[in-house]
User: Which sequence fits this backbone?
């Protein structure tokens, strides 16, 4: 298998089994000061799923980020088998570094069932083929130099195509409504294992969502604002593939107390709602 950002991401999700219900995870060798929260979400979800019957799939998880993760230190994932019922299983995962908790995650799993069905409609937006890769758009900006250009140019497992555009990669930008529509998919094919697709969607769902709460204030994550994800919840509604185009609809109905609240809805391109997301994050003016 060739060495790409996608295959390296899959390797990060292939956790080491340390003991019964205990797993080990690593971080990519990137010049980052802290671990990306989506990575810990994805790895914790993999750890929880490893302890559940294969006939049951995760339908939701709720997580709190407790401390910044150190990318140079391995992560230990300890899973508590909270309950295995007739239809549902519950798991609690604690992610630790040097004995300190950096994340706690509770996940629920359910055997396949049929029942009532309804969903909200997908917004009418241009197809991804009519839009440009966000990375290529940013790299055309000649004012982007040095470490910032290297950061944008590095190979990434996901491709993004923004419908509304995020504006230049700078500290401030014109204020607009806290709403975004972003097409996304992995930059290569994936195995068929649904666990990997859920874990990868959990990973990417933590990208750009918090930034939505800064849009009406004309700020970005590169502004003089302290930003950090505080919690993250996700619900998986219907089957999907992360290596096929998905539309991530994001909005932020409220910001208060130096916290921004954000919501996401993720659709297949045929309009099927496959997942919902909610997150609150720190957006503290410096």
Assistant:
């Amino acid at each position: 298998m060739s060495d790409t950002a996608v295959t390296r991401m899959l390797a990060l999700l292939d956790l080491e089994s340390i003991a019964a219900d205990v797993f080990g995870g690593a971080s990519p060798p990137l010049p980052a000061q802290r671990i990306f929260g989506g990575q810990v979400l994805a790895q914790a979800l993999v750890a929880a799923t490893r302890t559940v019957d294969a006939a049951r799939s995760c339908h939701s998880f709720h997580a709190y980020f407790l401390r910044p993760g150190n990318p140079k230190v391995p992560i230990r994932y300890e899973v508590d088998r909270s309950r295995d019922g007739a239809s549902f299983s519950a798991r609690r995962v604690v992610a630790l570094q040097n004995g300190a908790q950096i994340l706690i995650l509770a996940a629920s799993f359910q055997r396949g069932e049929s029942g009532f069905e309804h969903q909200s409609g997908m917004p009418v937006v241009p197809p991804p083929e009519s839009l440009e890769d966000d990375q290529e758009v940013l790299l055309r900006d000649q004012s982007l130099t040095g470490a910032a250009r290297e950061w944008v140019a590095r190979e990434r497992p996901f491709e993004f195509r923004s419908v509304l555009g995020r504006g230049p990669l700078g500290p401030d930008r014109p204020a607009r409504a806290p709403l975004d529509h972003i097409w996304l998919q992995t930059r290569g094919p994936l195995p068929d294992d649904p666990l990997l697709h859920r874990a990868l969607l959990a990973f990417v769902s933590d990208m750009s969502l918090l930034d939505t709460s800064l849009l009406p204030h004309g700020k970005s994550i590169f502004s003089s604002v302290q930003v950090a994800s505080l919690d993250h919840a996700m619900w998986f509604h219907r089957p999907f593939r992360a290596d096929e185009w998905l539309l991530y609809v994001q909005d932020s109905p409220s910001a208060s107390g130096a916290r921004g609240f954000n919501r996401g809805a993720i659709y297949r391109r045929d309009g099927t709602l496959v997942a919902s997301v909610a997150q609150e994050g720190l957006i503290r003016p410096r």
Q: What stands out?
A: The chain has two domains: 1-112, 132-286.
